[in-house]
């Protein structure tokens, strides 16, 4: 199994309306983690922000295929995050 690179990470995200206009954004200090967990933490923070703004329908965009796969089909038990 390949080792994961651990780094100090800041996460950020934003919410736009249906016209593409900025509504709200966030930045958070995630700390020491790898890129997959950092992206998942950013998604979680963005979803919490959307809920606090009472947004009931949204489109999530992320730039990592592995995150999309994790959110749509999950990982098998052999993957480090699969348990």
Report what the structure shows.
The chain is an alpha+beta fold and 83 residues long. It has one domain (7-73). Helix content is 33%, strand content 27%. It has two helices and two strands, in the order ββαα. The protein has helices at residues 35-52, 65-73, and strands at 7-16, 22-33. It has a two-stranded antiparallel sheet. A hairpin with a 5-residue loop joins β1 and β2 (22-33). The longest helix is centred in the middle third of the chain and has 18 residues, at 35-52. It is globular and about 40 Å long.
Helix count equals: 2
Question: Could you tell me the number of beta strands?
Answer: 2
Widest sheet: strand order?
1-2
CA radius of gyration is 14 Å
Proportion of helical residues: 25-40%
β content, as a range? 25-35%
Low-confidence stretches: none
How far the N terminus sits from the C terminus, by CA atoms, comes to: 15 Å
Largest sheet: 2 strands, antiparallel
Summing up helix and strand content along with how strands pair, one would put the structural category as alpha+beta
Key attributes of the depicted protein:
83 residues, alpha+beta, two-stranded antiparallel sheet, 2 helices, globular
Task: Please summarize what this structure is.
The chain has two helices and two strands, in the order ββαα. By secondary structure, the chain is an alpha+beta fold.
List strands and helices in order, with pairings:
Layout: E1 7-16, E2 22-33, H1 35-52, H2 65-73
Antiparallel strand pairs: 1-2
């Amino acid at each position: 199994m390949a080792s994961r690179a651990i780094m100090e990470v800041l996460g950020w995200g934003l919410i736009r309306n249906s016209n593409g206009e900025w509504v709200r954004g966030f930045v958070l200090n995630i700390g020491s983690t790898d890129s997959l967990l950092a992206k998942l933490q950013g998604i979680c923070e963005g979803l919490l922000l959307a809920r606090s703004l009472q947004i009931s329908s949204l489109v999530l965009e992320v730039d990592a295929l592995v995150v999309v796969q994790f959110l749509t089909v999950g990982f098998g038990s052999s993957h480090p995050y699969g348990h």
